[in-house]
Amino acid sequence: MYTSKELMEMEHKYGAHNYHPLEVVISKAEGIWVEDPEGRRYMDMLSAYSAVNQGHRHPKIIQALKDQADLVTLTSRAFYNDRWPLFAKKLAEFVGKDMVLPMNTGAEAVETAIKTMRKWGYLVKGVEQDKAEIIVFEENFHGRTTTIISFSVDPDARDHYGPYTPGFVIVPYDDLEAVKRAVNKNTVGILVEPIQGEAGIRVPSDGFLKGLERICRENNVLLAVDEVQTGFCRTGKTFAFQHEGVDPDIIIMGKALGGGVFPVSAVAANENVLGVFKPGTHGSTFGGNPLACAVAMAAIDVLVEEKLADRAAELGKYFMDGLKAIQAKTDKIKEVRGKGLLIGLVLNESAGKARIYTTALKDKGLLCKETHSWIIRFAPPLVITKEEIDRALKMIEEVFVG
Ligand code: PMP
After folding, report:
1. Is ligand 1 within 6 A of the CB of residue 228?
2. pTM of the predicted model, to two decimals?
3. How far is the CA of 139 from the centre of ligand 1 (A)?
4. What domains are there in the chain, each with its CATH number?
5. What ipTM, to 2 d.p.?
6. Has residue 393 got a pLDDT over 90?
């Protein structure tokens, strides 16, 4: 058995560089709790960036994993398997689209959406293939592949990885006029996060998504909503675009689709859009594998059975009200923002760096993460209870107020 210190040193020596906002090693987890090798318990308020909405090792999801592991785990896409058709049907019906395409990671699903929009642009809209443009937004985060970082504005994500993939027009977030100016006959799609998670829980103005939908309809452009972080009940609705009654052409999903157990991502759309892929034109060895499908079906069941959307809405409000009460007692907090259980605490400049507070919270037994150096994010598993939120608020108050 290695100590946390030994494990961190081993990783630094043999693992290529990775970003760790906090020095903690996790070796066990259950529900909203994680534990290090020394047996210290922490409340997880990051949920693996919203991938653990159902809570760590949810019994129903783990059972599905075990049951499927006893039958067949991987077939490749060369053969049909007996899980993917069931999962495809379940997910398509769950999101209300004709069909879904399975991938593994969020970035792969975003790449799939980009390819869909471009191919649709060529086949349906008649845009010359090297002319296609997709509108994206400043401060976006959609993943780390070479195409996706080509339209990132974050130097850490982008610098020195060129040459970059062309065909993306970056406009300010939450600015419909800028979008209108950018649209032209070669525009095939708009790719948007309904709330910018990695940028620090940036919630756009009411009507922004609806406005994007209108622009898309008026200009024969596809609307692709990246729900990788916001989806599966995180913001108090199954998907964040539902807050505005929007019907996107393409829904991009990942993270919590795998129930915190397994990488599972997917893109959903109607036949007239996703039908642009013909056999052999796109796919992945692991996409739609039986283990992933079994896990994802159980992950969806848990969201529905435990009414996690309603829970996130109710407890999110409770948590935000508690944070606002703390804000009233200190001049360190500038703003409490978010939706459901996707919450950002924006610090005043005089408060110093966010890392001071996230480290102090870790020492008290609460794991969360800073974004930039002045925003702290709280995104606990959605199975958190009111009492646990009270415990979290107490720790946060001790750190910010004393
Ligand atoms: N889209 C969004 C909105 C995300 O937040 C993330 C990951 N933080 C991704 C895509 C990429 O997902 P993955 O890390 O699984 O590739």
Report:
1. yes
2. 0.98
3. 13
4. 4-57+307-401 (3.90.1150.10), 59-306 (3.40.640.10)
5. 0.99
6. yes
SS3 state at 215: helix
Alpha-carbon span 267 to 297, nearest angstrom: 15
What is the rounded CA–CA span in Å between residue 102 and residue 153? 28
Instruction: Count Cβ atoms within 10 A of the Cβ of residue 131 and give its class: 0-12 exposed, 13-18 middle, 19 or more buried.
Output: middle
Taking the CA of residue 193 as reference, the ligand 1 atom at the shortest distance is: 3
Alpha-carbon dihedral 210, 243, 143, 315, rounded to 10 degrees = 160
Task: Give pLDDT tens digits for 90-126.
Answer: 999 999 999 999 999 999 999 999 999 999 999 999 9
- The answer to whether 239 is a known catalytic residue is no
Tens-place pLDDT, residues 2-27:
999 999 999 999 999 877 888 999 99
Query: Is 175 annotated in the active site?
Result: no
Q: Tokens standing for 275?
A: 């039908």
Q: Specify the long-range contacts of residues 314-317, CB closer than 8 Å, at least 24 apart.
A: 315/341, 315/382, 315/384, 315/386, 315/389, 316/235, 316/236, 316/340, 316/341, 316/342, 316/343
